Amino acid sequence: MRILISNDDGIYAKGIYYLAKELEKDHECIIVAPDKQRSAAGHAITLHRPITVKKVKLEGIKSIAYSVDGKPADCVKVAIEKLLEDKIDMIISGINNGFNLGTDVIYSGTVSAAVEGAIYKIPSIAVSVDFNADDEYYKRAARHVKKIAETSYSKLKNDVVLNINVPKEDIKGIKVCSLGNRIYVNAYIEEETGNEGERKFQLAGEVKDFDDVDTDVFYIKNGYITVTPLHYDLTNFNIINEVNLWLTKEVIL
């Protein structure tokens, strides 16, 4: 396969190194990633200034690599539109430093890079591990995602993203499951500014997980690699007819 690799932790992140190192053993890889940390960038793109693309050399990696002074979605867009001469078979985004579980996917630049690939009708994968992973953890996750990618390529629809999270140790197997729910409590800490009329808040807080059975939040805590198929169509089909009924009956234009 020809695989485009991206992430949101930046071109020099440990996760992208180990992912590329594993994938390039058997596949042709091209790396296009942000020039610096862009976590929680979501699906933002750069509109009001040019973005700069620079060819870089990653120590120990044979694949061609480019840094982009933009967001993860920018990286995938500019790669497809301008940098890649031949067809890409798959996009893999990661390995992210920190799980992307449940509602995290809304904020995640890692997931958004993969979603951008799906928008271009390219099968895409996002992969994440727990915070502060050591080298062996990254290596193990890279081996697992390589197997999943090779198995899924001929079967995965081109507008679907597989969101993968790999637990730290004692892996029991793989669970294909739905997104769970997690919220961040006490999310902002107020800091002194010294300026009258000004308030400053630092995003912090703690994660509160809802451990509903059959979700990624539940299974990751029980030692399973979680795989959740995602799609960029956010339509709530369960209530589309209900909304149509109340609006067409009650709203007169």
From TrEMBL:
Q: What is the species listed in this Swiss-Prot or TrEMBL entry?
A: Caloramator fervidus
Q: What class of enzyme is it?
A: hydrolase
Gene Ontology cellular-component annotations: cytoplasm
* Keyword annotations: Cytoplasm, Hydrolase, Metal-binding, Nucleotide-binding
Report the EC number(s), separated by commas if there are several: 3.1.3.5
Where does this polypeptide localize? Cytoplasm
Give one GO term, molecular function aspect: metal ion binding
Q: How is the cofactor bound?
A: Binds 1 divalent metal cation per subunit.
Is Phosphoprotein there in the keyword field?
Answer: no
Q: What is this protein called?
A: 5'-nucleotidase SurE
Query: What reactions does this protein catalyze?
Result: a ribonucleoside 5'-phosphate + H2O = a ribonucleoside + phosphate
Q: What function is annotated for this protein?
A: Nucleotidase that shows phosphatase activity on nucleoside 5'-monophosphates.
Survival protein SurE-like phosphatase/nucleotidase domain: residues covered: 3-184
User: Where is this protein chiefly located?
Assistant: cytoplasm
Specify one Pfam family.
SurE
Cofactor(s) needed for function: a divalent metal cation; Mg(2+)
Residues noted as binding a divalent metal cation in the record, renumbered to the chain:
D8, D9, S39, N96
Family membership, please give it: Belongs to the SurE nucleotidase family.
